[in-house]
Amino acid sequence: MTDHRTTTEPSRRPGDEQPLLAIDGLSVDFRLPTSVVHAVQDVSLHVHAGETLAVVGESGSGKSAAALSVLRLNPSPPCVYTGGEIRFDGRDLLKLSERELGRIRGRDIAMVFQDPMTCLDPLQRVGGQVAEVLRLHTGMSRAEAAEAALAALDEVGIPDPAARYRQYPHELSGGLRQRVMIATALVARPRVLIADEPTTALDVTVQRQILDLLVTLQHRHDMAVVLITHDLAVVAETADRVAVMNQGKVVETGDVLDVFDRPADPYTRTLLAATPRLEAA
Ligand SMILES: Nc1ncnc2c1ncn2[C@@H]1O[C@H](COP(=O)(O)OP(=O)(O)OP(=O)(O)O)[C@@H](O)[C@H]1O
Ligand SMILES: [Mg+2]
Known about the structure:
Elements: H1 4-8, E1 21-31, E2 36-47, E3 52-56, H2 63-70, E4 79-88, E5 91-92, H3 98-104, E6 109-112, H4 126-137, H5 142-155, H6 161-165, H7 174-186, E7 192-196, H8 204-221, E8 224-228, H9 232-238, E9 241-246, E10 249-255, H10 256-261, H11 266-273
Parallel strand pairs: 3-8, 3-9, 6-7, 7-8
Antiparallel strand pairs: 1-2, 1-4, 4-5, 9-10
The structure holds adenosine-5'-triphosphate and magnesium ion (MG).
């Protein structure tokens, strides 16, 4: 018996039907005193377990505003969510109370940012900060959380984790701080990780190490990853699918190889043309 759907949709794999995180028709405005910025306009993004979705697009195209919407982290005011839904685990995150969303933040869905200091408390030792996430989201005792936090620092490749555990963020290099933020994000074993330009502020060699680390941890824990980046070479190497944003809209989305080989949208072609080294990579 011939199943026409399997022949006409060869890229569909079992389990593809249910994205873990599905943003559908999201619109986000920033209502400023004298103007309204339509930062995100009818954007749909889906990511499955074990998959990396890259979101690319020039500065101001709405990548961060869309990503921050998942955990409702845009400052409000001026942010207003004007439409769409964000489904995770059968629930619309935009409709949850702050309290319900608080249980999902950091436990089921975690974020890492460009600047670790936005997440890390400068006055608290880094080990304690990682342990605190576990105390918040699990029933672990103080001793159990400390032990698991130490293991998390080790897992993200921090040398001599026991000594680092007791240090403050300012005592660490940028690369180590980024690793601590990743440990903080991943220690509670979230199912979705949203990484917004996680390596932009780092040296090129450290960037590579951090990306390799994210890929390793993603595979180990079967996470869905949304990776926002300016770097199309990184997209080519790490992502399964890519969404291209321009002026608040997704102008093109698909498998990375398809989109990079045959960009359908003129803006995507411009973006690819501006990255001449990609073809050599
Ligand atoms: N808190 C805010 N208040 C007012 N406007 C904002 C705010 N955050 C974002 N915007 C506006 O929304 C639009 C989208 O911004 P966003 O930060 O999502 O862009 P981006 O694609 O992440 O850019 P970049 O690559 O520079 O990080 C921009 O016009 C920006 O000025
Ligand atoms: Mg941004």
